[in-house]
Design goal:
Layout: H1 2-14, H2 19-27, E1 31-33, E2 39-41, H3 47-71, H4 75-89, E3 95-97, E4 103-105
Parallel strand pairs: 1-3
Antiparallel strand pairs: 1-2, 3-4
Length: 106
């Protein structure tokens, strides 16, 4: 589990490349952390936001797969753990999806 945690911290570190756009989208309430471990639109998304979501999620998927391979965890376990960490790190005023699929403002 420690390997999984360390690997997931690297995923967060990699997100700095998109931090400005991602942070803006999050702070404006356009996107949030979905309960799948991926980014999702909170409100109907523009083409620009859909592109951002697609790019972020493609990078996350690649990292999740690498983390699963390195740690021996399943992809579902990696996604679930990333979601837990993402919710913990969600800034006040930003959105995350609860286990029932409802959007919650932190």
């Amino acid at each position: 589990m420690k390997k999984l945690f360390t690997a997931l911290l690297l995923v967060f570190a990699m997100q700095t490349a998109w931090a400005i756009d991602l942070q803006t989208a999050k702070s404006e309430g356009l996107v949030g952390e979905a309960n799948t471990g991926y980014l999702a639109a909170v409100v109907p998304a523009t083409a620009e936001v859909r592109t951002l979501i697609s790019e972020v999620n493609a990078k996350r998927r690649a990292e999740f797969e690498q983390t699963a391979a390195k740690t021996g965890a399943t992809l579902a376990q990696v996604q679930a753990r990333f979601y837990q960490l993402a919710v913990q790190r969600t800034a006040a005023g930003n959105y995350y999806q609860d286990s029932n699929g409802n959007w919650r403002k932190k």
